[in-house]
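=== RUN LOG ===
request id: a7f3
mode: sequence -> structure
chains: 1
length: 413
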Amino acid sequence: MNGHPISGTSAGTGRRRGRAALPALAAGVLLLVSACGGGPDRPADGDKGARDSGRVASAVSRAVVTVAPEDGAKAVDTSGALKVTADRGRLTEVTVKDDKGNAVEGRIAPGGASWEPLRHLASATGYRVRAVAEDDEGRASVKDTSFSTLVPEHTFIGRYTPENGSTVGVGMPVSLNFSRGITDPEAVEKAIEVTAEPSVPIEGHWFGNDRLDFRPEKYWAAGTEVTVRLDLDGVEGRPGVYGKQAKTVSFTIGRRQVSTVDAEAHTMKVVRDGELLKTIPITAGAPSTTTYNGQMVISEKYEVTRMNGATVGFSGEYDIKDVPHAMRLSTSGTFIHGNYWASRGTFGSANVSHGCVGLRDVRGAYDGGTPAAWMYDNSIIGDVVVVKNSKDKQIAPDNGLNGWNMSWAEWTG
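=== RESULT ===
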């Protein structure tokens, strides 16, 4: 009774030992069954909520995410190829980044069935896509893919004016001349954003298929800051020809200066910020070579330049190698410039030029006191020169930076 019989039984009778072990095993099984059933502190095995909860936590989401193009695709089109969709679920998150980490802006459709980028993709660029969708029970499905866009064989750029960081007059439009003719102007214009501070509506207008200008309804306000964002990289401007620019430029509008030439009165009045600065005697186009009427914008300045009539349809009539203080008003050759070859009495009394506006000057442009020198020194690119009372037609809006000769309805129509 003191423990020795157990020791003896263990040594001498194996059968009795086996019988003693069975109740212990049964107890262990009973304990395991009780644990599965919950016991006093757990829900019973028949509790449907507990079973469903366990199934949600471990089951796979029914949502299926599809990304086009397929993972690893190469030479993908920059427009129309990228799309993410969800079946048996809804998209909750889509992130697309290029190989430099820049995000691609996009939008999930109402209801979460699909996602598409808001803009075209860049060419010759790698992209990574991560998309997350949830099924109707909140279970997430994630898909990660990558692809690269095509490397274009043919490209185009837009040569822009004014220059980045420049200060220009109130008449300066944003003008882009494309190196290739554009057959999809909508796609190209969509990739260009022109904004102003203070804000003002700005619209673009195409002149032919290779020039796009932007301007507000009226001249810019003095002091306006203008920003031009060119997102042309990857834009298919014509079949098989893609833009390759991704650039931001900005410029400032300086003081407001508008000079009005009266061809009949032979005078020019220079008005800055509402104040008359100077009235200058001028000579305009002769009766056989009149000066265009209309609003013109100074687009170039040359302290001294050569003017050859042969380049603008006046073959052999003149070739002056040292025209002083010249400022271009049209592509076709209209300038406001110094004139040293006419007599002093011509200015303010007669029109004798081949269509330009002439101001008294000296040969060599060395005298800063002449009317032409004063005008040159007090003008900047983008200033406006208005010609009136000339016996000629109005200048064409695409002849120089002269879109102001179109009404706002014509410009935006």
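=== NOTES ===
The first helix runs from residue 4 to 12.
The chain has a mean pLDDT of 88.
=== END ===
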